[in-house]
Amino acid sequence: MTTRPTPPAPPEFGDLLQPHRESAAFLEFLALRRSTKIAQFTEPGPSPEEVDALLTVAARVPDHGKLAPWRFVVFEGEARELAGRVIEKIARERNPDMKPEQAETERNRFLRAPVVVGVVSHAIDNHKIPVWEQILSAGAACQTLLLAAQAMGYAGAWITEWCAYDNQLAGAFGLGPGERFAGFIFLGSAAGETRERDRPRPPDLIARWPPQK
Ligand SMILES: Cc1cc2nc3c(=O)[nH]c(=O)nc-3n(C[C@H](O)[C@H](O)[C@H](O)COP(=O)(O)O)c2cc1C
What we know:
Elements: H1 24-31, E1 41-42, H2 48-58, E2 70-76, H3 79-94, H4 100-107, E3 115-122, H5 131-151, E4 155-159, H6 167-172, E5 179-190, H7 202-205
Antiparallel strand pairs: 1-5, 2-3, 3-5, 4-5
Helix pairs in contact: 2-5, 3-4
The protein binds flavin mononucleotide.
């Protein structure tokens, strides 16, 4: 069995931190980061204890107003199959003529990875902190979860598909008013090789102001 790195215990309020330490390893990790294709996910995934440790790290994101405008719904073990039945039922309501293969696809959606974490954006309307900023914080939680899981040696992918956009499904998974899924973070191990994808070129994305003549 491989020993995986685990995050340190979360600091207590007021503890002295060293947040700007040089880390060539972390820079390399970020520079070579890559998601795993959904078809490549395999066992094992993080254990419940590891998931809890990862989510503790994922909750350490910038959060204007300390609103914690996110929370997590974990689907692991047999719960993924139960979730699949809920997904299939709602998909059938949307499309009563669904073919058996499509029904199977719906049923298996959360069985494609050992662990699926729904990251819930929980934004408060009419608050002095704009909803936009609260949603951005949920996105940061998604990416931090991905990075933390990958640093623990697990494969990860941020997936929305139709499930993140269906209000009835959100309700079935326990989401309340003002809540929506920012995405589902699929976690597990990767079968096969991972190669770099085509990416935008940073010079095309960077402007300096004022514009250079
Ligand atoms: C909000 C969000 C939703 C996404 N949803 C999907 C999805 O439903 N299906 C999918 O194949 N990729 C989805 N992706 C893209 C992948 O997570 C991944 O970013 C993409 O394949 C590029 O790979 P990379 O992360 O290694 O750059 C989504 C990405 C984001 C940010």
